[in-house]
Inverse folding.
């Protein structure tokens, strides 16, 4: 049973990094398409933050899968790089939120309503991805045990990346 459980875990986690990597490409293309190709500068920072965080997620999950498969010799170096990207990702996310708000406060700075909506969607996604990776696990829909835990009122647990970064910082 443990081997099946481990194989199931690896299969699920292997899909995470692929999904995050695909979304790093798909999300901007889809949102630009939704805006009819009319996105302006207010969308660039939140879109860049979203893409950066999706890439961080893809790198983390790919590294985690490799570690669980026994090929994790590069995982500590990866964690070091992901830790170094925490502050820039936060700054870019906050800048994205600021440019989005600027676009709503001064509509002439945007390319129109669709641009402001896309900027807002990107800003929200960036904030959610930042929290999901560096602080609290927000995703609970793909794992029955996680979903039950959430519904039981136990709240959001610390994200796996946050746990790994803390462990690395403590030298374990």
């Amino acid at each position: 049973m443990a081997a099946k459980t481990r194989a199931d875990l690896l299969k699920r986690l292997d899909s995470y990094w692929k999904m995050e990597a695909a979304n790093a490409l798909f999300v901007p293309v889809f949102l630009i398409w939704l805006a009819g190709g009319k996105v302006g500068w207010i969308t660039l920072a939140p879109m860049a933050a979203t893409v950066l965080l999706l890439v961080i997620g893809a790198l983390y999950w790919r590294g985690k899968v490799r570690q669980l498969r026994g090929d994790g010799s590069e995982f500590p170096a990866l964690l070091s790089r992901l830790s170094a990207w925490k502050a820039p990702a936060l700054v870019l996310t906050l800048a994205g939120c600021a440019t989005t708000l600027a676009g709503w406060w001064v509509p002439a700075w945007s390319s129109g309503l669709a641009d402001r909506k896309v900027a807002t969607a990107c800003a929200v996604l960036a904030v959610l991805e930042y929290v999901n990776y560096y602080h609290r696990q927000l995703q609970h829909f793909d794992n029955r045990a996680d979903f039950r835990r959430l519904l039981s009122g136990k709240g959001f647990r610390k994200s796996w990346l946050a746990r790994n970064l803390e462990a690395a910082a403590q030298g374990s």
In short: The chain is about 80% helix and 0% strand.
